[in-house]
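Q: Got a minute? One more chain.
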Amino acid sequence: MNRDTDIAVVGAGCRFPDASTPQEFWRNLDAGTVSVRELSDEDLLAAGVEPGTWADPAYVRKAARLDAPADFAGEFFGYSRAEAEAVDPQQRLFLEVCWEALESAGHGARAGSATGVFAGSHAGPYSARLLAATALRDGWPAALGDVALHLGGLGDFLPARVAYKLGLRGPTAGVQAACASALYSVHQAVLSLLAGECDLALAGGATVLEPETGYRQRPDGSLSADGYCRSYDAASTGTFYSSGVAAVALRRLPDALADGDPVLAVLRGTAVGNHGADRAGFTAPSAAGIADVVGRALEAAGVRGDQLDYVEGHGVGTPIGDRLEIRGLTAGLGPGVPAGRIALGSVKANIGHTGPASGLAGLLSAVHVVRTGRLVPHPLFAAPREPGAFAKSPFHVTTEPRALAGAERFALVNNIGFGGNNAVAVVAAPPAPVRAPAPERPVVRLTLSARNDVELDALAGRLAEAVESGDVPLSDVSTGNVSTGGTPMGDLAHTLRVGRRAFPARRVVTVPAGNPADGPVGLARLAAALRDPVDPAVRSRRAASGQRLAVVVPPGTPGADELLGLLAAAFPRRSALYDAVADVPGKAFTVLVGDGMDAGAHTGPVAHLPARPADAAGAVEELAHEAWLHGVDVDWAALAGSRGRRVPLPTYPFPRERYWALDHFAGQAAAPLPPGDRSRPHPAQGDPA
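A: Always. Here it is, folded:
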């Protein structure tokens, strides 16, 4: 049963090791992929690590790296090279994933909207090294007084940068709760949505540990001896830090269902808290503290412990951390949960500990489980710590993929940060859509736009690949029957219209809707048209900036009222009604309503409409695509009325380049670390969160 306090997860964007999209991340989880690799001598030298350091037998030369972390779509977002290089890659990549989260939700055109942004980040090594390198070159007063480095490196400005570059006008807040920052951000976003401060919220976190250096393992430290995070396993010797950047788009569930948003999962309840003073040390967790926050999250969700199918645990991999977490989870779930009832796992075994982004990695893992109804395999697990106690706990660790029984599925995500910060979310399977799919038409028109023809071709190619691969499953496109798991092609067209920003380079791809018998043939035709810009089904042009629309209806034209009403709804901005063509100003896109009308000397583009078309809605829709090609603003949502669902589609093909200011410092490209211990900048004593 849906509740007014339920929050829908409607979109996501991410950069994790071996995954640059949520789809890649989920495929890796399904396959049990472990993304840890050994650093080469060249990698270590480039990171400023001296050969004598990695010759130490205790030195662990492992990393779970992002693909091209130095690359960024700087020019796309309006940055000069100098500006972009002063911004930490955590902020740069978070900006990209927020754009992708909005587009995947079908809400890419959000400029000026009440969209909130909540996020936290790591104290990144890039900014620290850039500050040190600048100080070595220009002196410390100049480095400390460099405002660009200050704005580009502090987590306070992570969400505000997104709001500024995407034109979002909702609340923004940096949430610094150590490794619990991302899930804390989700909690804050939920509260903001329920308070009515925003109607859509982005929440997430960022950690980019580049350049990667490896580390010297210490017997009294918290880092693992082998460079792996073996969550909950008896053989685990510690944790392993890695990079990750992620964001989710959230909406109130009633709003998301009414608008036909792609609901990936539902946040039934969230809770946050601190473990207080009753623990071994400042960096250590508390079983009682975990139990308290877990219990409050379940209460907020209206879900009992024995209803959970899966717990995505923090799974830090240290002996004390894993033991205390299992005890705290067991107590927080309450009595009456049968032994072994709930599957337990942690994505840290796949990608390592992504610090402030780790809560989003865990949330996306839980979203995947409840959305698909399949448990993912938990890698690097052989036997639990304290086997006797674990056998009596509510948990078991699943090392092979397995389907869950029943349609009502619940998961819990537990996320802990240094200092006793704790955030918990209860996630439920998505409900069935309530909004009707887009109406069937004899032909389907897809609208694509980009800044230029190169990016337009790349966007069309992405969509063609997604259609062919099944990432956009159009298995029954002609009937709109989603019961088979297919997406009606009309909804694909609807999403491109209402869910994307309009750029100057525009394209309309027109293909027949087909029939149920030739589904694969129809998909092949669609993919071929998307890939070929000179296909007869494709029309492309560069839209005029601020193009006006003029509708000419001679006095006394009978029966045009319905048509004029549809036109007024579709073109509410920069449009006007005229009695004669001679009255139309300049090169406006002109619509002549009625039979036998002549454009005369008018120099702008012209379209004709009968006063009483057999299908008025279809005629206006066809006209809208032609007008849109020429640069006229179209209110696609008004044209769609109460039909049409948004579906997840490939996001914009960012033109990314390397932006790495450390390259410019001759002889100190990586601003070498000081001598001594080269472990991650986390406390070595105590047990990390």
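A: Residues 86 and 346 are 34 Å apart (CA to CA).
Q: Perfect, thanks.
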